[in-house]
Structure formats: C-alpha cells, structure tokens
Sequence to fold (207 residues):
Amino acid sequence: MVLAQSESRVTMPADRYSTFSELFRHETAGSDYRIEARHVTNSAVVMAPHGGRIEPGTSEIARSVAQDDKSLYLFEGVRARLRHHELHVTSHLYDEPLALEIAARTDRLVAFHGRADRDDPETVWIGGLDTDLSGLILDHVVRAGFVGRLQQGELAGTHPNNICNRARSGRGVQVELPRALRNRLMKEQESLVQFASAVRNALEDLI
Fold:
C-alpha cells in the first residue's frame, strides 16, 4: 500500500546539543556514545545517525541492510535510560566528522531514522533528495509487504544540509520507521531480513 500525505507536527523536547563539537565536550565516548564507521565501497553507504538508544532499532536495521558489502556509519547512544533529545543532533545540523567524511566519498546514501507512531504505527516514510532511489526503495518495500509512502513536509529529508544529502552527489534518502514497526523488526528476524533485502534490492537496481 502506497500513501502520500503529510502529518501534523508533534512537539518534542529540544535537542540538548546543536553541534557535535558541543556534544563531544560534554559526553564521553564508550560510556555515553559510540561511533562505528566502516568504508567498504564508494557506491553506497548506509547510516543510522541516531542509533543505539537514541532511536532504537535503527542501528540493527542499518547493519542488516549494509551487511559486508556496503559502507556503514552508526552514531549510537549507549547510556542507560537515555532520552531521545539528550544525544540527538538534528539531521540538517549533523556535523559529526566521520559521518561527513564517509558520506562525501560515497555515491548513494541511505539514512535510517525512527519516528513516533502517532496514529500510524506501520507506514515507512521515505524522503531525501535522491528521488530515483527513494522511489525504488518505496517500490521494493511495498512489494515486500510493508506500508510506505514518499514523505512531504515534516521529516521529508529535503534540506540540502541533511546528513542524508551529504553524499558526493548532494542527494540521498531518509527512511523514517515508526516505533511499532521497529519493535516488530527487532522481534521478527524474518521480517527484518525481508525489509533489509527490499532496501538492498533497490540499491542494487542503481549501483
């Protein structure tokens, strides 16, 4: 099922940090956060910019898509009882050096994020400036049995400085998954494999 509509904004606590230089001054690697950056190929990188406990499930989804043949970047909150805003740097201000470096070396970029369920706990919102790849991801995800739509407005990932659009092409894809769907993918290995395979198949259509 393919949908196309926008959602009203839900008020969230303001992010504690607006830059990574600020975050790094106050947080400790290993106990508060960790970064995994693996450059395998210039053709595609898969990211979870708010992984670990920040937006649960996004790291596991990114790893499942990247496997061993795609480049991978994860910024993960690891502190116990972490609240979302405490280590969340918004995507259009995302200036973590390793993320920018690996993105700038890569042709295609897919960034996985988590969103609140609101009244729609199933739909995968797909945005970003790489409209060719976002359309393919939507097609493959829907064919795999998931609900998806091309997102407009909020969380559409169209800001040019959004980390998803920092590939050397200046374009990329932002995939927003609701919490209920992320929980299901973490519990059902077969569903996770199906979803990851759908995204990988979309990438393979272009690279």
